[in-house]
């Protein structure tokens, strides 16, 4: 697992594309000759990984959008997993 | 006393999902003459190629159904001078675009235009097995062409993905091939053993490696993997003739893949046109939606109603869908049989006999048939 600084700004990995697919009613992550269909929470996290928001901003933004609290650990765990899988990257 | 006649339960097949993966075989024209090409051997009798606006209409219709991946292949897709237009339209519609090319015809002007059009990914394929491969291994013209194209691909910030088709005549050179790939700066190398369709089927006995060759090649691949790790990822695709269970071909015909042949014929896989008794619709005459959901050509091999034993009662039928219909047809004469690669098939001996013949001290003296217009 990566340890990520709260100030890091994750972005969709090079060569990958995130988009909303009405036909699948889901966000999908496209990569060469393949596709990952994301569940609702994963889609909401990934679409906020735009290279501008920081790792600290993302759960705060989600908590505001969905009027909830305490998402920090789950979001951090997902981002860490997504970095390991190279779905996300931290650009220098 | 009469017993009621058994009433068969109505078979309501679930509506298939969308054609997620669209493959445009833009043209059968190609500057190369590969002995392992899977294009149909009678490709020169195929009707005229679709025009640009026809390809664009298919893109829009398939995308509206939910298609997301677009493969651009052939033949050599760079032969079409509207490739950039097709890529731009596909990108605009939200396709992830993959170009599968030999690199012949890829210069900086075209790559710059393709990048600008939004091309996502390039796979540089190694085409000719004997002439070009010898040329490559002896560091001459082909090596220079591929290296130049590889450098260009990297300069435009694409990962350098090299695909090399393996067979009896080059599989002993895996070490040299990987060394060359490394010196070209490949990030990924796919060593794909030949699949026996089209021209490759004609040349099968000359191309099928022996088990010993295969094992040596796998050991060599392992050695390179250990040496290069993440810097050059190597995939090794074993030829299915050496397996005991068939591949889940196309993830089941009509489940995900939609191929459009150069003349507009819509196929559930690139080779399916060989299957007898099936009519495959043409995009010139029908919408992509009606082709995908309503045509006999796409519905026939969906589900498992078409299966014979041993597939019909096999617990693995949901995993491999009985294997490849084309291989079943080519080897057994009936496309509804189990793929004879499966050792449960009563025809499995046809595969093991072909493999056994590779162990003979000589291979049948028969000239290789180079892909050509005939």
Please supply descriptive tags for the structure shown above.
heterodimer; A: 92 residues; three-stranded antiparallel β-sheet; two-stranded antiparallel sheet; 3 helices; 5 strands; B: 374 residues; alpha/beta; 12% strand
Offer a concise description of the structure:
Chain A is α+β, with helices and mostly antiparallel strands.
Q: Topology as H/E string of chain B?
A: EHEHEHEHHEHEHHHEEEHHHHH
Low-pLDDT sequence parts of chain A: none
Instruction: Give the overall shape of chain B.
Output: globular
Kindly report the average pLDDT value of chain A. Answer: 92
Main sheet: strand order of chain B: 7-6-5-4-3-2-1-8-9
Give me the strand/helix succession of chain A.
EEEEHHHE
Number of helices of chain A: 3
Distance between the termini of chain B: 68 Å
Strand content of chain B: 5-15%
- Strand composition percent of chain A: 15-25%
Mean pLDDT of chain B: 89
Q: Please report the distance between the alpha carbons of the first and last residues of chain A.
A: 19 Å
Please estimate the helix content of chain A: 25-40%
Largest sheet of chain A: 3 strands, antiparallel
List the helices and strands and how they pair.
The complex is a heterodimer of chains A (92) and B (374).
Chain A: E1 10-12, E2 17-21, E3 26-31, E4 34-37, H1 40-48, H2 57-65, H3 72-84, E5 88-90
Antiparallel strand pairs in A: 1-5, 2-3, 3-4
Chain B: E1 21-25, H1 52-65, E2 69-73, H2 83-93, E3 96-101, H3 108-117, E4 121-126, H4 131-137, H5 141-155, E5 161-166, H6 174-183, E6 188-193, H7 198-202, H8 204-207, H9 211-228, E7 233-237, E8 257-260, E9 266-267, H10 288-294, H11 296-299, H12 317-320, H13 325-332, H14 348-357
Parallel strand pairs in B: 1-2, 1-8, 2-3, 3-4, 4-5, 5-6, 6-7
Antiparallel strand pairs in B: 8-9
């Amino acid at each position: 697992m990566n340890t990520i600084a709260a100030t890091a700004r994750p972005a969709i990995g090079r060569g990958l594309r995130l988009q909303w697919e009405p036909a699948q009613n889901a966000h999908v992550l496209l990569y060469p000759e393949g596709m990952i269909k994301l569940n609702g929470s994963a889609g909401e996290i990934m679409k906020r990984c735009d290279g501008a928001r920081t790792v600290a901003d993302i759960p705060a933004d989600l908590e505001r959008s969905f009027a909830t609290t305490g998402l920090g650990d789950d979001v951090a765990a997902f981002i860490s997993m997504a970095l390991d899988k190279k779905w996300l990257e931290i650009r220098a | 006393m009469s017993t009621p006649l058994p009433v068969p339960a109505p078979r309501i097949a679930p509506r298939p999902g969308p054609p997620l993966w669209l493959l445009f075989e833009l043209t059968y024209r190609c500057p190369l003459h590969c002995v392992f090409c899977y294009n149909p051997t009678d490709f020169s009798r195929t009707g005229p190629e679709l025009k640009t606006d026809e390809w664009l209409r298919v893109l829009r219709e398939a995308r509206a159904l939910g298609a997301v991946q677009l493969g651009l292949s052939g033949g050599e897709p760079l032969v079409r001078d509207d490739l950039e237009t097709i890529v731009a339209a596909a990108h605009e519609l939200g396709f992830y675009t993959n170009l599968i090319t030999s690199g012949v015809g890829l210069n900086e002007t075209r790559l710059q235009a393709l990048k600008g059009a939004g091309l996502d990914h390039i796979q540089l394929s190694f085409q000719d097995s004997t002439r070009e491969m010898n040329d490559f291994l002896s560091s001459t013209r082909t090596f220079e062409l591929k290296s130049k194209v590889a450098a260009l691909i990297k300069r435009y910030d694409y990962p350098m993905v090299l695909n090399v088709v393996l067979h009896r005549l080059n599989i002993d050179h895996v070490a040299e091939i990987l060394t060359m790939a490394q010196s070209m700066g490949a990030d990924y190398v796919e060593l794909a053993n030949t699949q026996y369709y089209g021209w490759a089927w004609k040349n099968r006995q000359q191309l099928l490696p022996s088990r010993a060759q295969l094992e040596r090649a796998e050991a060599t691949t392992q050695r390179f993997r250990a040496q290069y790790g993440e810097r050059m990822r190597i995939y090794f695709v074993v030829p299915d003739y050496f397996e005991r269970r068939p591949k889940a071909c196309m993830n089941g015909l009509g489940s995900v893949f939609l191929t459009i042949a150069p003349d507009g014929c819509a196929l559930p896989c690139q080779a399916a046109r060989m299957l007898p008794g099936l009519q495959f619709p043409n995009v010139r005459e029908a919408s992509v939606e009606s082709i995908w959901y309503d045509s006999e050509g796409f519905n026939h091999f969906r589900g498992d109603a078409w299966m014979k034993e041993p597939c019909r009662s096999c617990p693995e039928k949901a995993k491999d869908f009985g294997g490849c219909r084309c291989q079943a047809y080519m080897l057994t004469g009936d496309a509804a049989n189990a793929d004879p690669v499966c050792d449960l098939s009563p025809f499995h001996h046809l595969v093991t006999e072909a493999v056994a013949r590779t162990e003979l001290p000589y291979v049948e003296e028969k000239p290789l048939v180079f892909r050509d217009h005939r």
